[in-house]
Write a structure and sequence with these properties.
The chain has about 240 residues and is an all-alpha fold. About 75% of the residues lie in helices and about 0% in strands.
């Protein structure tokens, strides 16, 4: 295995634990990209997915503390499962767009890039978890909590997509146009997933929805219901 020019010795060190995977994705993303290109990268990919599930479930638990009850176990499953499912759903389209963009990245490398994307997202979400918990214990507004979690998700997604774009940028001759189109598709898929597995914030009669909705319609309905509820509370005083 010959060293890659531009990488120091530390960036060639094996990633053998979950902590090492987290530190590498935060401090040495090129180290992750290097090992994804090597044979036997499946172990690293599995490790990143495992850490992503744990971190996603941890952030979901914080979301669940807003309502308590069923959401304490349902929200962690929905957040972790929704992120992994969104990635798997968008994997084929990413491979196709990568090929159309002139990239020679193998399917397993693309899977690794998506795993790195989800890992970075969930690690950042865990970093935001204490702030989210404070708000969940001090406000009863579903709209406020929804906007807060959406802001944290948007920041995490930005950095995750930046990591994925860096992986493709390392491919000489690869056009970024198709990859950018896929990023939009991925963001829309995740937004729709939040509606498909609702409720994440608040309560409902069922764990999963029985009605199909577009995520924008769902958000507008939530805002309207919260506004009507606030008005009714003021009228009743």
């Amino acid at each position: 295995m010959s060293p890659q020019p531009g990488l120091n010795e530390d960036e060639h060190a094996p990633i053998t634990s979950g902590i090492a995977a987290v530190e590498s994705i935060l401090r040495q993303p090129r180290r992750v990209l290097w090992w994804l290109q090597q044979s036997g990268s499946g172990r690293l990919i599995a490790l990143m997915v495992l850490v992503s599930v744990v971190c996603g479930a941890g952030y979901g638990a914080v979301i669940g503390t807003f309502s308590g009850g069923t959401q304490l176990w349902a929200a962690p499953l929905k957040v972790a499962g929704g992120l992994i499912l969104s990635a798997l759903i968008c994997l084929p389209s990413l491979y196709i767009f990568a090929c159309l963009s002139g990239s020679h990245v193998r399917l397993v490398e693309i899977l690794g890039l998506i795993a790195g994307l989800i890992l970075l997202m969930t690690v950042l979400l865990i970093g935001f978890a204490p702030v989210a918990w404070i708000f969940s214990q001090s406000t009863e507004s579903v709209t406020v909590m929804g906007l807060l979690h959406l802001a944290f998700w948007a920041i995490s997604t930005y950095f995750g997509l930046r990591f994925l774009n860096a992986g493709f940028s390392a491919q000489q001759g690869c056009s970024s146009g198709g990859i950018r189109v896929w990023m939009i598709i991925f963001v829309l898929a995740m937004l729709q997933m939040t509606t498909a597995v609702r409720p994440l914030i608040g309560t409902a009669d069922t764990v999963l929805p029985t009605e199909k909705k577009f995520f924008v319609s769902h958000w507008l309905d939530c805002i309207k219901q919260n506004k009507d509820s606030a008005q009714n509370n003021q009228t009743g005083r």
